[in-house]
């Protein structure tokens, strides 16, 4: 069950579209929604870069909000990676 939620969160972050204009890659607090209707609501980012919020899926557990905790890291300065997007991880 945890692995499915983790995979859903990763998929959500990989294909997010802004539900509202508030959250950005540098300030992810807000509501993110993917094309399948799953919602990731990030409510806080601590100085340690720990984030917290909820995940809501429109299928299977419709209406149930699952608490989540993860970490947010900006890309490394001087990186030669083609993507400069921040990394967000969620422990299992």
TrEMBL record:
Main location: secreted
One GO cellular component term noted in the UniProt record for this chain: extracellular region
Cellular localization per UniProt: Secreted
Keyword terms, alphabetized: Secreted, Signal
GO molecular function: biotin binding
Domain of life: Bacteria
Residues making up the signal peptide according to the UniProt record: 1-21
Keyword Secreted listed: yes
Keyword Transcription regulation: no
SUPFAM superfamilies for the chain: Avidin/streptavidin
InterPro entries: Avidin-like_sf, Avidin/str
Record-given protein name: Hypothetical secreted protein
Organism phylogeny: Bacteria, Pseudomonadati, Pseudomonadota, Gammaproteobacteria, Lysobacterales
């Amino acid at each position: 069950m945890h692995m499915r939620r983790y995979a859903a969160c990763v998929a959500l972050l990989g294909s997010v579209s802004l539900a509202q204009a508030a959250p950005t890659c540098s300030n992810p607090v807000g509501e993110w929604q993917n094309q399948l209707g799953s919602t990731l609501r990030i409510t806080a980012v601590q100085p340690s870069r720990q984030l917290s919020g909820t995940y809501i899926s429109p299928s299977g557990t419709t209406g149930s909000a699952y608490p989540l905790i993860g970490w947010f890291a900006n890309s490394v300065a001087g990186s030669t990676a083609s993507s400069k997007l921040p990394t967000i991880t969620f422990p299992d």
